[in-house]
C-alpha cells in the first residue's frame, strides 16, 4: 500500500496494523519522523520516505492500494494512477472548491477540485464509488470534499 502525502502516516499506520506492507511518502521530514516513531511504539512494520512530490519522483513501483488524502496535484495524477497495480485500487479524497466559502482549508485553486473533476482525474481507472459532500468535521467546522475509489482492470 502506498500512502502519498502521508504527513504523520495515519493511513499507512492503519494499513500496517491490518497487516499491509505500507509505504508512506511525504516531503516533511519532521512529520515522517513522528510516523516512524509511532510505528516503532505500536510495533508496526511500515516504511516512510522523504520525497518532494512536486519534484522528480523515484520509481515507487505498483501497489494493490494507493491512498491520497487532502493532496491534489493535477499534473501528477497520471503518475499516481500508474502506481496502481492491476486489480488494485486508488482511494482518494480532497477538498472541493466550495471549501473556500467555509473559511478554512486550502485557498489556492490549484489544490481544490471542481465539481465532477475527481472521477475524470482517476481515469483510466474504473470508478467503483465516488461522492461529493458537505460534511461536519466537528461542532464548529464543515468541509466540502470529493472522494473516489477506483480500480485498475486485472
Polypeptide structure, described:
The protein has 154 residues and is α/β, with parallel strands linked by helices. The chain contains 4 helices and 7 strands, in the order βαβαββαβαββ. It has a 7-stranded mixed sheet with strand order 3-2-1-4-5-7-6. The longest helix is centred in the first third of the chain and has 14 residues.
Descriptors:
154 residues; alpha/beta; 4 helices; 34% strand; globular
Question: Short summary of the structure?
Answer:
The chain has 154 residues and is α/β, with parallel strands linked by helices.
What radius of gyration results from the CA coordinates? 15 Å
* Distance, first to last CA: 17 Å
Largest sheet: 7 strands, mixed
- Residue-averaged pLDDT: 96
Overall structural class, as computed from helix and strand content, comes to alpha/beta
Return the string of H and E elements.
EHEHEEHEHEE
Number of helices: 4
Can you give the helix content as a percent range?
Answer: 10-25%
Strand order of the largest sheet: 3-2-1-4-5-7-6
Shape: globular
Give me the count of strands.
Answer: 7
Uncertain segments are none
Oligomer: single chain
Strand content: 25-35%
Amino acid at each position: 500500500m502506498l500512502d502519498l502525502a502521508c504527513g504523520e502516516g495515519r493511513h499507512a499506520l492503519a494499513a500496517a496494523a491490518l497487516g499491509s506492507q505500507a509505504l508512506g511518502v511525504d516531503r516533511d521530514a519532521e512529520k515522517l519522523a513522528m510516523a516512524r516513531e509511532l510505528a516503532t511504539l505500536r510495533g508496526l512494520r511500515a516504511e516512510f520516505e522523504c520525497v518532494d512530490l512536486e519534484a522528480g519522483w523515484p520509481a515507487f513501483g505498483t501497489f494493490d492500494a494507493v491512498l491520497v488524502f487532502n493532496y491534489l496535484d493535477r499534473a501528477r495524477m497520471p503518475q499516481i494512477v500508474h502506481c496502481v497495480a492491476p486489480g488494485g485500487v486508488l482511494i482518494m479524497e480532497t477538498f472541493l472548491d466550495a471549501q473556500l466559502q467555509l473559511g478554512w482549508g486550502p485557498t489556492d485553486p490549484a489544490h481544490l477540485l471542481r465539481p465532477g473533476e475527481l472521477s475524470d482525474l482517476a481515469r483510466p481507472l474504473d470508478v467503483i464509488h465516488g461522492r461529493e459532500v458537505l460534511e461536519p468535521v466537528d461542532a464548529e467546522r464543515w468541509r466540502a470534499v470529493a472522494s473516489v475509489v477506483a480500480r485498475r482492470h486485472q
